Amino acid sequence: MASLFRWGSKEKGKDYFSTAFFNTTPTVFLTEEQVMKIPAVKASVELISSSISQLPIYLYIEHDDTSTEKMDDPRISVLNHEANDFDTAQVIKKKVVQDYLLRGKAYLYHKDNKLHHLPAKSVKEELYTEDGITVAKKQFNYTGMSNVTLEEDEVIVIDSGTDGLLVDAGELLKSALAQQEYSQSILSNGALPAGILQTATRLTENAMSRLRESWKSLYQGSKQAGKTVILEEGLEFKPITLKPDEMQMTETHKILVSEIARVFNIPESMINSAANKYNSLEQNNLQFLQNCVGPIITAIESALDKNLLTRIEKDTGFYFRFDTSELLRTTEKEKVETVSSALKGGLISFNEARHKLDMSPVEEDYFVLSLGNVLKSAKTNELTILNLNQTSNGGEINNNGQEGKD
User: Fold this and answer.
1) Fewer CB atoms near the end CB (10 Å): N or C, the chain?
2) Three-state DSSP class for 230?
3) Could you give the number of structural domains in the chain?
4) C-beta atoms surrounding 284 within 10 Å
């Protein structure tokens, strides 16, 4: 059985190991597990990866007349349904997008006409060069259940062209993590009510220690908040205000959420409802598609075109594309208005409009045209005057099939 995946033949017998080589894996100071504990990061990664993982990928061919045709191909099932014997394609796509965002690169391993995800944190690239400028050979060292060396024709690389947010936004993520840990520390260790205990007499070291431990056992921690304070004779309590607003914790949190949304290139309103800038759901989704999802799916499409298509298929006009229509879901009102506008403009037929609204077709289909328009043929430059039922070409007018001079 011929392989469903066509890979370029690798050059054998050439010794690159005597030439210079370098490793391309950047050093990260935070792990995926650490940053995914930040709610804004978790929400952003989940939003982007889940949105892309639900999108189907299709194989198309562009004909010489620029028309396109969707192809029926076994590779589509692997990309949309069963990636391998254990993982669905949706799970694989989600993992790929997470690695792409956080590590800057994602890796897929091809074996037996199946695709397997290789965690980017476990992959190291080794590039070999003969001239010190161009790459002559690439290998991948994967650390999994054992150390495995993979050749370049066994691995699909989806490259963002960056080092990933763990590196590029490392300082911001460290600040967000530190702020979260500080807030948790305040709740866990803060003695509530917070304040100073004063006494009219001098206390011994042992007495101060016993008083401190007694106060902590009674009032420290968020679960002890609101308890009634009982003071012994001679003790006076002076409260200290530790409100989050006065400590600027609330404002700092808002700024960090806004900055995290910015580095992920998503509208802040999608992870923070208080920051909604768009009145239309469609506009919100359009911004998300164009600025965030678009570059990612383009990188995935390019990697699939490069690795899963033969040279003949590429030259013929084959290409992989995501169907992004699901990301442009609108409100019912916006959907009806958009479809109605396309119908009135003659771009779609009546049944095509009903199909977009999930309605059954009528027996006789038709297009809606306006008699007030003049149609010009893009091929012959012939004019059709609808309200006069006439056509004109080079000064001659055709009236209901009769030829005559203008």
Assistant:
1) N
2) coil
3) 1
4) 17
Q: Is residue 4 part of a domain?
A: yes
Residues spanned by the domain of 148: 1-33+46-170+276-329
Mark the ranges of the chain whose per-residue pLDDT is less than 70. 1-24, 186-198, 200, 203, 218-234, 236-249, 275-282, 328-332, 371, 376-378, 386, 388-389, 393-406
Other CB atoms within a 10 A radius of the CB of residue 202 amount to 7
In this prediction the pTM is 0.71
Gap between the Cα atoms of 359 and 342, Å rounded: 16
Q: Which two tokens stand for residue 8?
A: 């370029």
Flag whether 156 is in a domain: yes
Residue 85 within a domain: yes
**Burial of 191 from C-beta contacts in 10 A (0-12 / 13-18 / 19+):** middle
Structure tokens that stand for 12 in this block: 């054998």
> β-pairing, 318-322 with 374-376?
unpaired
* Backbone torsion region of residue 38, taken as left when φ is above 0, otherwise alpha when ψ lies between -120 and 50, otherwise beta: beta
CA pair distance 76, 82, nearest whole angstrom: 10
Which residues does 376 contact at the CB level (< 8 Å), separation at least 6? Answer: 382, 383, 384
Q: Can you spell out the DSSP letters for 369-398?
A: --TT-EEE-TTT--EEEGGGTEEEETTEEE
- Summarised one tens digit per residue, pLDDT across range 280-324 is 666 777 788 888 999 999 999 999 999 999 999 999 999 999 998
d(CA 53, CA 323): 11
Q: Which of 26, 4, 153 is nearest to 83 (CA)?
A: 4
Strands (E), 95-136: 105-111, 114-118, 123-128
- Which amino acid is residue 385, in one-letter code? I
- Residue 267 and residue 72: Cα distance in Å, rounded? 36
